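Work through this:
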Amino acid sequence: MSDFNELGASSANAFFEDLEKLLVSEIAKKPDNRALQLKLAELYSQTARITDFVAVARRIRELAGRHPERSDEWLRVLNMGRSLCPDEPLFTLNPSSGFAFEAPREEPPRHTRIGEEPRFKKPLEELATAYDQVRRDPRFIAELDTEIMQIAGAPSALQWLQRLSEQVGGAQIYVKRDDIGTRLSHITSAVVGQALLAKRMGKRALISFSRNGRSGVLVASIAARLGMKATVYMSAEQIAVQRSNVFRMWLCGADVQEAESGGRIGGDIRKAAFEDWAGRAQDSLLIMGLDAGPHPYPMLTLELTSLVGRECRRQLYAQTRQAPDLVVARGGENADAIGLFPAFLQAAKTRLVCVTPAEPFDSPSPDGARTAHQLDIPEQQSLSIQTQQRATQILEGMDYPRVAREHAWLRATGRVEDALIGAAAAKKAIRDMSHFEGIIPAIETAYAIAWACQTAARMPRDQTVMVLMAENVDKYIWDIGRAMGIPL
């Protein structure tokens, strides 16, 4: 990770600049497209560029015509505008506009996202300042390099699937073997980086939350290695189910706390962790795994997890002397894509694709790579298979999306594509990978490999396809056997 300071598109500012250029370019081609204008307005809202936001808002209002109350885009912009710049006349009540909102008799309660309360302002600013100081510090980068190598065995291998490529008969297929080992490879660098940063800041304890205990084990182990205390919050149900992981955390000296249940999945344990941090932020740091929190966590986790993409880029170039033509990651919460895609954003000829299962793995239906239309799924609902759309369309001000914001933006602009594929193709991918390469992929990874193989078959032989394998198959092996009809 010696080029950690090569942030480029991985940095938050560079990302928003690149995204703005893409949107402006697309709007120039389709000036009347309100959806694109809305995306640009959201970008300016996210980055607090009020003047630019108002200018785009005026354009959306013009496109809404005589009945703006019928325009979802305008109503969305109106909501953002009243929050971002309430004194702007464009967003004040205007009976002549054709619609009006009834003013509430009393001030409505303001919904704030976890971590946006005033009590978190100072700890978050302290974290942002500390990270900005070390993100290009050679000593910190070298220390992080060493820890990642010792803890996770980085860099993992980039393996050419020669026999499978010959069988497919098209482009050459490579896989990044982050599936070897028991660590959560896609967030190990983020967790370890935050832990090292906490130690640099003089913190003595790490606080985290874990839905199934696996990330909790990682936090507990790095805390033990650094001589720090660790507290991990889990739900009572998962503590009962994941007893082996709870035991591992206990052996490492971590304090596993049960969070009260009753709310949204994962919300209670995260809230408990934030509450704990609020009470002892002076000597502790909250460890976050993915892009699901306030600034600077999205930027921090994006830059730290992008290690895997830079490894892939260097390793593939060493073998082929060219950038990949296609980079594929599994869908879901896009944990793989967060780290994989940033290194290739500037490679204009490289397609970036997230593959989502079109049906459960135990589905008996016949296969193929199919579009949303062929699956009888409305286009705007095609990603609801794994609740991605629901995750990115939560009410404004209520919670953070589980799908990374950067990935959602890139998908909206078309830089990242989404694909669907059936269960039969995933099962075939497992058989072919096992038979030709001696590699058994995990279930979600198998969908990505299946789509990559079908696409590679239509590509020239001198082109390259790369797939990230970040799931360990061990916990899925019996599910795979049962779904494939193997007697167990």
About this structure: The CA atoms of residues 82 and 231 lie 40 Å apart. The two ends are 43 Å apart (CA to CA). The beta strands are 158-160, 172-177, 205-209, 229-235, 255-259, 284-286, 326-330, 351-357, 416-421, 464-469.
